[in-house]
Write a structure and sequence with these properties.
By secondary structure, this protein is α/β, with parallel strands linked by helices. The chain is built from 21 helices and 17 strands.
Length: about 475
Amino acid sequence: MVSRLEIPLQEVQRRLGLDNPWWRAGGGIDPEEALWPRRAYFGPFCRLALETRVRRAVVLIGPRRVGKTVMLKHFVQRLLDDGLAGVRILFASLDTPLYSGRSLEGLVRLFIEQHQHPAGQQLWVIFDEVQYLKDWEVHLKSLVDSYPGVRFIASGSAAAALRMKSRESGAGRFTEFVLPPLTFAEYLTFAQREDELIVEREDEGSGNSRYLATDIDALNEEFLNYLNYGGFPEAVMNPVVRENPSRFLRQDIIDKVLLKDLPSLYGISDTQELNRFFNVLAFNTGDEVGLEALSKHSNITKQKLGDYLEYLEAAFLIRRVHRIDENALRMQRARTFKVYLTNPSVRAALFGFVRSEDEAMGNLAETAVWSQWLHDTVISRSLHYARWKSGRQTLEVDIVSIDVRTQKPRFAVEIKWSDRISKQLQELKGLQELAARHALARHPLVTTRTYTGQAELDGVPVDFVPVALHCYTIARNLLRSKH
C-alpha cells in the first residue's frame, strides 16, 4: 500500500514525460534553448560523452550559471540529430521536487520499464544537478558497474563538493569535464558581434593568425558589457536577466555556493563569515593580499582564512596567483599573493555595473585577462606576477609566464586600462628590468584602452595593444587549440 505521504508513481512518470519531450514523436529540446549558440567546449564534451567503449560516467562540473544544463540539452539534440530514438534518452534534473526521495537506480529502472528497453541496449541517462542527492557519488559508481549498456552523464554546480566526492569515491568510474564561464571570444559570438568587430589576418613570417579590431570603441563597449554580465550565457541571451543580473544571479552565485553547497566538506561552519569574506575579495579582485593583514582586518584566524580560500578556489569562484621575484624565483615563504575572480562578471552581480571611467576598471581589466588564461589549466599554472625591491622602489609586472622545463620567463605582460602609459614609459621600469635580466621569447606586452603600437624601452621593443583585443586573442587561440 502506497503511503499518503509518498508521491504517486504516475506523477513521477508524468513529470519525466514533461522533462523528456523527445519521448514523443517529433519532439526535441526546448526551441529557445536549441537556438542558443553552442559553447566552444561543446565539441570536446561531445567527443568525451560519445566514447562509450570506456565504462565511465562523465561528470560535468563548473560554477553556477555558465550553461551546463543547456549544454546537456544541446547534447541530447546531437543524439537525436544522429538518429538515436528519443525514448533511449533519459534526462532528469534532481532538483525537481517530484524526484525527491527517489534513488538514481529507481529513476533508471522506471525509465527502462516504462519504455520496455531490452537488457544490454545502449541507453543514455543524464542526471542534472546531481548534488541534490545525498551520497550521489556512491549511487552513480554503482550504476556504472551495474548497467554496462547505459552511458551515464551527471552535472552539478556544487563544484567543490563534486570535485572532492568524484575523486574520492569515483576513482576509475568518473571522468571530469570542467565548463568555465564564457571567454570574451565566446561572449562576442553569443552577442553576435564577433564577425562585425574582429578581423583575422595572417601574421607575415610566422604563419600564425593575429586579430584586429574594426572599431576599437565599439569593441570596448562590448568589453564593458562582458565585464558587467558577459561571463553568464543566460544574461547575454536573455534581456531581462541582462538588465538586472544582481536580481537573477546573486542568489545562485552567493546563496547556494557559499551558504548551501556543502562548505562543511572543508570544515566550514560559519557560512555567513565565508560570505562576507568572499564579498571583500570580489570587490577587490586583482589586489595583492596576505593572510596576516587579512586576519587583522577581518578578525578571522589565518587557519580559517586558509580554509575559506581553499573552498572558494575549489568552487571556481577565485584563483590565487603566486608571486616571483626579479630572478623569476618563487618566494619560499611568500606571505602575499593575488586573488582574482574566475569570472569578472561576478563583481557586477554583487555590487552593480561598472562604468568605463570607474576606478575599478584597472583591476577588472586585469581580472578579465587572467580569466581568459584560466581556460587552460596547464598554461595558467605557469603564470605568476612579479614584485621585488630595486633600491627604494618596489617594481612589479602583472603577468610573467615561466617555462616549465627551464624555469625561465617566457613572456611578460603589464595590464593597463589607459592610453597614457604609451607616453609614460618610465612607469614601465619593472617590465624594463625583467626584460633586461631575461631573454624573453617574445616582446614584452603592455595593454592599453585603445592604442596599438610599439615603442623601445632601453633598446627592448615593447608592444602595445588594447586590453579588449588582448583578451579576445588569448581566448580565441586557446579555444582553437581545444578543437
